[in-house]
Amino acid sequence: MLAYVIRRLFATIAVMAVVAFFVFSLLYLTPGDPAAVIAGDAATSDDIKRIRANLGLDEPFLVRFGGWVWALLQGDLGVSIFTNLPVTHLIGQRVEPTLALTLCTLLVSVLVAVPLGVLAAARAGSWSDRAVMAFSVLGFSLPVFVFAYILITVFSIELRWLPVQGYRNFAENSFWDWLRHLILPSIALGTVYIALIARITRASMLDVLAQDYIRTAQAKGLAPAPVLVGHALKNAAIPIMTIIGIGIALLISGAIVTETVFAIPGIGRLTVDAILRRDYPVIQGVTLLFSAIYVVINLLVDLSYMLFDPRIRF
Amino acid sequence: MNRSLRIFAAACLAAAATGLAPWAPAHAQQKVLKFIPQADLRILDPIATTAYITRNHGYMVYDTLFAMDEKFQVKPQMLDNYEMSKDQLTYTFTLRDGLKFHDGAAVKAADCIASIDRWSKRDALGQKLAEATASWTAVNDKTFTLKLKKPFPLALEALAKPSSNVPFIMPERIAKTDPFKNIEDPTGSGPFKMVKAEWVPGNKVVYVKNTDYVPRKEPVSWASGGKVVKVDRVEWIYIPDSATAAAALNAGEADWWEQMPPDLIPLLAKNKDITVKNIDPLGSMGMIRFNFLHPPFNNPKMRQALLYAVNQQDYVIGIAGDPKNGKPCYSYYTCGTPLASEISAEPLKGARNLEKAKQLIKESGYKGEKIVIIDATDQPIVHAQSLLTLDMLKRLGLNAEVQAGDWGTLITRRAVKEPVEKGGWSIFHTWLVGPDMVNPAVNFPIRGTGEKAWFGWPTDSKIEELREAWFNASDAASSKKAASAVQQRAFEFVPFIPTGQFILPTAFRSNISGVIIAPIAFLWNIEKK
Amino acid sequence: MTAVTTLPAPVSTSPTLRQFKEAFRRHPTAIVGGIVLLLMILLALLAPWLGTVDPQAVTPIKRLKQPSAEFWFGTDMLGRDVYSRVVYGARVSLSIGIAVAFFSILVGLSIGLVTGYLRWLDAVVMRVMDGLMSIPPVLLAISLMALTRASIENVIIAITLAEVPRVVRLVRSLVLTLREQPYVEAAVAAGTSLPRILVRHILPNTTAPLLVQGTYICASAMITEAILSFIGAGTPPNIPSWGNIMAEARSLFQIAGYLIFFPGVCLSLTVLAVNLLGDGMRDALDPRLARRM
User: Which ipTM did the prediction report?
Assistant: First the structure.
């Protein structure tokens, strides 16, 4: 197993190298010049030229890429062109809100979606099944920002139950204050995810429930609940885990929008801002981080297979 | 799942423990002003960029030698007194007592000279002053002199320049930085100190009251007078989504929203605790800018044709939503300021005359060349103007299209001098705040210095001569006359077309008082109950 | 977003008409979905004859008018007729959905078929696909949009690029299962050439799951387009798409809700319809699951 993990980690590095090169080239080709953004509206072409030279942006592609990789190997992601703050510092500031938001969403989604999916599968064809399925289709059909606005209008403006925007950090605020600020964003972000997981859970449960050993267990007169959870869900877990892993990328995309609407200072917002301003070092750093997270989570998902299916050995 | 559940349980316990722990907020009794700024503060250097948000940051942490009041009079701010020699060639400045930088060092003459020097390498008016300057000399720590080669009537106005770039005074060690390189250290001598450790770019900037600051005794008027800080702490909370910002103000999560889209006024007007006000007496001016290097707008007839077609009423409504928040302004100077007039403005002002416009287009020999309008969809003011101009050009039978991107793309793309087939452009839109268009000196889009001019690169030696003549005008009457001559030429040459004057209202909750009526949101003098 | 299917490799061969009919009988919702989709396509095709005006014509004086007899769906910030924009928007949104589905299946299928069969290529391609997948689609789209400029083609390319890896994975897993099938092994033993094996034996068996996957991609592409517009990297703003209309009016959602309501309803209905159709097809094409319904 250790060998497997090591092999996977090497593959991870390969993936990240692909991403790094891809992103760097993409940025190199992208029109848009941080020097122009820095100079402001009233600057002239000459001003911009001088700023660009100062930033080293007029060097050839390979020199810049080489320099960046070299620094990266030393753990240095560079310095934001605009704020002059280290990229690692900027990312560090933003990790907590995004982590809180995605974990909260993930947790809520799994806690809501898996039981829903199991319920729907257990009562396939019933009204409760249809209701779950209807929801799982509806969940896909509204862009997350529209849904977020509806939540704000109802719960923050009309009912005044929850705050409109912002994030409270965990360490300095009360738990409730922290949680309050996460409820609406998590619901907004989680809807698609709940729909997705509920759907997959139902499908794979149906698959498993059709298998002979479940029928045997039922025939033996085992109570429905232990059969469902103990036997069926455990065996249906692998596709569910896979989808959760793949869904992380979706979650990050969704987080960009959610963080914008709810003014949460997370990584997603940092990324969009950096792209709009062409803050190259930040974009590169963040993308690399995203791909690392994605790859690691999928590795963890793969390893978790062992938990659910002892037959799997690496 | 078991493991993740366990982790969650642990996290919850930890969280609950934190929640129960006696929570002693450091600034609970403090008065904290929560301010939603117009943009996100990214660059701390008000000399290296002309971005308005950085200028506003500058007013928080820095102070200026002079400041302009609401009557456009130059008033000393950091200075105790100043003198001008009879021949108008030597100025002597004396700093007032008690000025200290945030690091505790006293403000000295050398700091001022270094700061002005750096500023004059970037700012257009500063460069003009530098051309006329023979030397800056420190007489002692508190006194310094400016010697001119020739009289420069605008010397003090330049030092009191209210908008970008403002000649802020920084410590000498910082002011020595290359003016094309961003400074990182926000140490100034202004009424607030920035807490850099709490700065989260894209989200929050924190300032605290500078308790060492000694305000002037005079009443406040624009940036002049006593900058008395009446809160302990100011938090700039940047909210990128305007609907969310409105909701936040409505819910009391913020105290003051610097600039709001006028369309959202009804949303806040319902709330008795919120005041929506136009505090900016000068507003901003929209503009259509041409590319002078390529057909069709290298032909003055084409540009004049558009003067007859542009309907400022449409642009004002398109930008400001309600006619209350804007008005047409048929002048190349900010309406409501001394030099503004409607001299030679007939083509832009009279009844819209599409026939005349079409005739001029015909005379220009327009052959159906493609006109590319570059648009930035993330800037509503640019975006609205772009779509209005597109519609107008189509009605004139011109071959026009909008190419949309973000602001970052627009400002890069507008630097491309190639024709449209090779990634160039024909028209872009932007806007300038009122103070940036008050006279020929600061009004940079009006200039005709060719390759060195602002994007579009018009060449017009005549307007340059007239502008030079204005610099040499010594009294108000001749200044006005010279400025009018510049405008007259501008309506012939059409370096850009003003699309109207509009005001973005500000909104604050009723627990806030003392908001200064000025073209810039200043945060001193504000009281919070 | 896309339901990355966990479709088990199909036992059946290509679908038959009877199976379709059967499934639709069992699934009235799928029929409703089909009808709604058909109506939307008609709406798109017939846009100029449905009492519309130029969807790009601005009239600032008539801005933000409530829905009325003159403006059925009201007017937007620049006085454009929202009804016309929504109707014309159907063209753009549907084209994007269908084009993305088509191209991502096409590209994903080609790559997946080849890599699933050539082991040496497999490792390289899958690492590249992993890399692509690990960049959030929205991020990819924004960069691409900035790379050239906002246009419908770019929106399609950006979303397609993000969807392709998922299709490749699906196809690859199908191929890996199929190549172990006796009849494929027999063909290999008989010395059939690789392209022939792929086209004759493998390709037909991927049709069904890909068709289903295609509907999900189509639905999710329309939503993604809206999200791209929200971030400012979507369809050029003068060209109306449902997502675009909503994104442009988003700050006014409390003041002029109709600006979001009408395109929102159209988008939701269509996405819903496409998803229902996809579910119906999945059940029709996958009898093992259909039996349980």
Answer: 0.81
